[in-house]
Every structure is written in structure tokens, then in C-alpha cells.
Task: inverse folding
């Protein structure tokens, strides 16, 4: 798996607690913090060696923030739903595919069976955690139990 995808899973699911997800819905600073977390994770996993890669990482983070702001506006208008979550993730994936084509030869800092095992577990765990956080954020916002599925 390209390190950009691993960075996305870590930043969007493992390092986005419910409090940050709720802050993103209330204030733009939540989206900025979230985007900066993505910058840090991408930098750690790719270890940029030139300015072009740094610029690409910053562009990815800015686009990530824009996508998240669009999702927030959509949620305010239509409420949280699994379709919004899936569209949000599809948009992030499209950006990452384009970026991965540009950074073809990026290798994670460690490329071993351990890394592959972590990624194998990270993918399903991340999406389950994302769905749980979405539900928890929705519950916190409306004060009632709501299931996303």
C-alpha cells in the first residue's frame, strides 16, 4: 500500500477523536487542525526529500480540508449519513490516487512484513472506527441514539 493511503487512514480515523470531529462541524479551526495532522502523518510516512514532495503534501492537506468543509456544510443541510461519509472518502481517495501517481516511488520508512500486517489490519479497523465516530458525533450533536447503517 502506498504510504499516502496509510497516512490517510491514520489521520482520518485513528488520529481523529470524536471531539475533533465535532469541532470540525462547529469551527474551521477543527478542519485546520485535522489537515495539519494529515501533513504530519504524510511527512512521517513519506519522509519528503525535496520541496516538490513537501508542496504536494501541503496541496493534499488543503484539498483534504476543502473536502471536509464541503462535507460539514452537507451535514448541516442534510444531516449525517453513511452516503456523505462514503462520498467524502471517495473524494479523498481520488485525490490520493492522483498524488500517488505523482509520487510513484514513495516507500514507507519501513517496508517489511510487519508494515504489511499493520496495513492489513488498519484498513478494516479504520473504516469501523470511522463509522463509530460518525455515529458518536451524530449522537453528540442531536442528543439521541442514531445509527448510520
Result:
Amino acid at each position: 500500500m502506498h504510504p499516502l493511503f496509510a497516512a490517510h487512514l491514520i489521520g482520518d480515523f485513528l488520529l481523529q477523536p470524536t471531539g475533533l470531529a465535532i469541532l470540525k462541524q462547529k469551527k474551521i479551526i477543527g478542519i485546520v487542525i485535522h489537515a495539519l495532522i494529515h501533513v504530519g502523518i504524510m511527512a512521517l510516512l513519506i519522509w519528503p526529500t525535496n520541496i516538490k514532495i513537501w508542496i504536494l503534501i501541503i496541496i493534499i492537506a488543503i484539498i483534504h480540508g476543502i473536502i471536509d468543509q464541503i462535507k460539514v456544510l452537507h451535514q448541516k443541510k442534510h444531516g449525517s449519513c453513511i452516503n456523505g461519509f462514503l462520498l467524502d472518502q471517495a473524494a479523498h481517495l481520488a485525490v490520493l490516487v492522483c498524488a500517488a501517481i505523482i509520487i510513484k516511488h514513495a516507500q514507507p520508512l519501513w517496508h517489511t512484513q510487519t508494515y504489511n500486517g499493520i496495513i492489513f489490519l488498519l484498513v478494516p479497523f479504520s473504516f469501523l472506527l470511522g463509522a463509530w465516530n460518525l455515529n458518536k458525533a451524530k449522537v453528540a450533536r442531536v442528543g439521541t441514539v442514531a445509527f448510520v447503517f
Q: What stands out?
A: The longest helix spans residues 113-142. The CA atoms of residues 1 and 111 lie 10 Å apart. Confidence is low (pLDDT under 50) at residues 141-149.
